[in-house]
Amino acid sequence: MKPVIIAECCQNHNGSQEILKRMIHEAAENGADYAKIQAIRSSELTYRERFEEGETHADGTVKTIKRPYHPELDRLAKLDLTLDQEVWFVEECRKAGIKPLTTVFTRSGVRDVQNMGYPAMKIASYDCASYPLLKDVKAVWNKIFVSTGSTYDGEIKQAAEVLEGADFEFLHCVTIYPTPMEELHLSRIEYLKQFSDKVGYSDHSKPATTALWASKIALALGASCIERHYTVLGPDETRDGPVSITPAMVKELREFADLTVEERMEIIKRDYPEWEIALGNPNRPLSHTELLNRDYYKGRFASKIGDKVIYNWEEYELA
User: Fold this and answer.
1) 148 φ, ψ to 5°?
2) Given a cut of 70, is residue 318 above it in pLDDT?
């Protein structure tokens, strides 16, 4: 089977339905299999005191990220899509001839989108070990993509056990934004195959400096799926713009993915002789940056049921 290409629109639409419509159609025209949004609800952002000021060790090393609640809430609120707009997104994708996909960030978010017509669901890296959320998703969808960045090996193993019986696909991911070539650790793709038959790659490298080499090397190593942040705007017009690819790059990636694995590797060795720098260590420990990101993003959003805040890893019967 040919590798799947996911065009991750994320919030590069800047809250504009017209921009998102353009993104859907240009992703479809350039060969992406899925157009993806994120079911982020600014109302589900959590207030956590320790991120208001952050914390730094005496030697200057960051201990806790500084990410104050109110500025983040204000930023996200401008980017919210309504549930009606998310329904429209699914319908517009079908009109364009591309599959719709979204990432759910809370267990109540699963409830919001479960009847919208999504054929598959995506779980972000920071929820790979949120087993109650995985169970909720598995109860609705058979096809599930799960990123594994900032997740410990034992957690990934347990996630595979929770998802057993579903058509799930782990995606190798490094949660450093942007990811340098020497931090890709793409040899981990082979390592992850012990847990899922198909293993893809969610790429956060910077196109302006590394073009599409990270994704192409992953494909040459047999990645079954490539997820890339994607934009139709300039790289400086959105928060994720610097790690996002253009429609023309989606087409280039599609054409490369349509080659045989042998043809892909031949091109890599010929045109990017230092490609092995991307292999790294399949069993490497998480970096300091990834641990900081894990600390902040795991728990960034939560279900809010009355006066209760329910995190994705908590066993709780949602009403």
Assistant:
1) -120, 15
2) yes
d(CA 65, CA 58): 15
In a domain, 208, yes or no: yes
On whether the CB atoms of residues 213 and 272 are closer than 8 A, the answer is yes
Pseudo-torsion of CA 112, 204, 199, 249, nearest 10°?
100
Residue 249 lies in a domain: yes
Rounded CA separation 230/244 (Å): 5
Q: What are phi and psi of 125, to 5 degrees?
A: -50, -45
Count CB atoms within 10 A of the CB of residue 285. Answer: 9
Q: Which residues contact 3 (CB under 8 A, 6 or more apart)?
A: 200, 219, 223, 224, 225, 226, 257
pLDDT reported for residue 319:
66
Domain span at residue 94 reads 4-310
- What lies within 8 Å, CB to CB, of 215 at 6+ separation is 201, 203, 205, 226, 228, 253
The total of structural domains in the chain comes to 1
Q: Report how many helices (DSSP H) and strands (DSSP E) the chain contains, helices first.
A: 13, 12
Global pTM reads: 0.97
Q: CA 213 to CA 181: how far, in whole Å?
A: 9
Note whether 1 and 224 are within 8 A (CB).
Answer: yes
pLDDT tens by residue, 10-51: 999 999 999 999 999 999 999 999 999 999 999 999 999 999
Per-residue b or e along 43-62, where b marks 16 or more CB atoms closer than 10 Å to that residue's CB: ebbeeeeebeeeeeeeeeee
Mapping DSSP to helix (H, G, I), strand (E, B) and coil, where does residue 235 land? coil
117: CB partners within 8 A, 6+ apart: 90, 91, 94, 100
Backbone dihedral region of 307: left (phi > 0), alpha (psi from -120 to 50 degrees) or beta? alpha
The CATH number assigned to the domain holding 303 equals: 3.20.20.70
Q: What is d(CA 71, CA 221) in angstroms, rounded to the nearest whole number?
A: 41
Domain annotation covers residue 238 = yes
Q: What is the DSSP string of 73-94?
A: HHHHHTTPPPHHHHHHHHHHHH
Residue 43 lies in a domain: yes
